[in-house]
């Protein structure tokens, strides 16, 4: 059966239950399974898309919890490696008064000892690529030499089996021992991509521009470029046409994982018709609007995965918004 492959980190998000306070003043934390590609995988599974996560966790309590949680969400985990010595990463996240996340650090552990940094290229299952519709990647794995090699092999397998590659830039300087080295590696990764999803802030910080048209000039091989701009809008270039969709106004509680839910919903829609049909302006607009709704709905609960909507919830949300516009 055709499926999507998500390659990247699964970890534990420790999310502050109190808002607008620094990490030192947080009184309680909510433990949630997270990691950008794990979030995308769960979002796809909730929408009914078959999906495998390719990742690495530690042979520890948190790693076991992550895998069990993913299975419960409907994600296929046979490609999740378990490392005997490295530990599963924990990320601490505080929130401002508007629910916007602030990454506040990791557990006290050397970066090189986290399981997501030691994914082994030798254990990537080639047969999974033979039937994949998309390979979805982030950039955080490039920060470590070993996981970077696994990404390289995955890209070669995607090329061998003509699997379109989606890159979510997901710029997180705190994951990089030497952040100054990130931009050249990310640009190299994008040379292998077919689609790029990036936030406006990330695009400016790493690529020095946030216009889909300007990004297409830099990476003219890309079939699609999507730039999300938080609560303002989403700008996109699919095929040869550019457009924008205003963000949906919702009461945001926690923005953690909104972009991941957006990407999952977009890929879910892109699987439903041949990619050549993205030249259809209406189809492209509806696919991105569907993704915007998924992202907005996810901000209305705490955590990246639990609030992710299913297809029915997204359709009901869009239908209600359409009726509001008519009245």
The structure class reads: alpha/beta
> How do the SSEs run, as a string of H and E?
EEEHEHEEEHEHEHEHHEEEHHH
So how many helices? 10
Number of strands: 13
What is this structure, in a nutshell?
This protein is α/β, with parallel strands linked by helices and 327 residues long. The protein has 10 helices and 13 strands. It has one domain (3-321): UDP-N-acetylmuramoyl-L-alanine:D-glutamate ligase (3-Layer(aba) Sandwich), CATH 3.40.1190.20.
Can you give a write-up of this model?
- The chain is an alpha/beta fold and 327 residues long.
- The chain has a single domain, classed as Ribokinase (UDP-N-acetylmuramoyl-L-alanine:D-glutamate ligase, 3-Layer(aba) Sandwich).
- The chain has helices at residues 36-46, 61-73, 126-130, 145-160, 182-190, 200-207, 212-218, 258-270, 281-298, 311-326; strands at residues 3-7, 11-16, 29-34, 51-58, 80-83, 90-95, 101-106, 132-137, 165-168, 195-199, 224-229, 233-238, 241-246.
- The strands form two sheets. A nine-stranded mixed sheet has the order 5-4-1-8-9-10-11-12-13, sandwiched between helices. A four-stranded mixed sheet has the order 3-2-6-7.
- Strand 4 (51-58), helix 2 and strand 5 form a beta-alpha-beta unit.
């Amino acid at each position: 059966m055709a499926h999507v492959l998500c390659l990247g980190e699964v970890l534990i998000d420790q999310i502050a239950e109190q808002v607008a306070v620094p990490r030192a003043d947080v009184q309680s934390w909510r433990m949630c399974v997270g990691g950008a590609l794990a979030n995308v995988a769960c979002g796809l599974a909730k929408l009914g898309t078959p999906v495998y996560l390719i990742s690495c966790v530690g042979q520890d309590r948190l790693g076991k919890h992550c895998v069990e949680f993913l299975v419960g969400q409907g994600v296929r985990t046979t490609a999740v490696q378990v490392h005997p010595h490295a530990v599963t990463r924990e990320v601490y996240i505080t929130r401002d008064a508007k629910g916007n996340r602030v990454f506040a650090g990791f557990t006290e552990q050397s970066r090189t000892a986290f399981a997501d940094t030691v994914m082994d290229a030798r254990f990537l299952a080639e047969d999974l690529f033979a039937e994949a519709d998309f390979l979805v990647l982030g950039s955080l794995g490039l920060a470590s030499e070993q996981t970077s090699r696994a990404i390289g092999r995955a890209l070669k397998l995607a090329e061998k089996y003509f699997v379109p590659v989606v890159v979510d830039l997901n710029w997180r300087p705190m994951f990089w021992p030497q952040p100054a080295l990130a931009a050249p590696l990310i640009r190299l990764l994008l040379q292998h991509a077919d689609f790029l999803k990036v936030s406006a802030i990330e695009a400016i910080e790493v690529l020095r521009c946030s216009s889909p048209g300007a990004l297409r000039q830099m990476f003219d091989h890309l079939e699609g470029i999507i730039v999300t701009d938080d609560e303002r809008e989403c700008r996109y270039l699919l095929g040869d046409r550019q457009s924008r969709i205003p963000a949906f106004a919702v009461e945001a509680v926690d923005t953690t994982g909104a972009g991941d839910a957006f990407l999952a919903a977009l890929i879910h829609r892109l699987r439903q018709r041949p990619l050549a049909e993205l030249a259809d302006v209406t189809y492209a607009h509806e696919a991105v609007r569907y993704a915007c709704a998924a992202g907005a709905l996810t901000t209305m609960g705490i955590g990246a995965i639990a609030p992710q909507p299913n297809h029915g919830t997204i359709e009901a949300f869009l239908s209600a918004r359409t009726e509001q516009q008519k009245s």
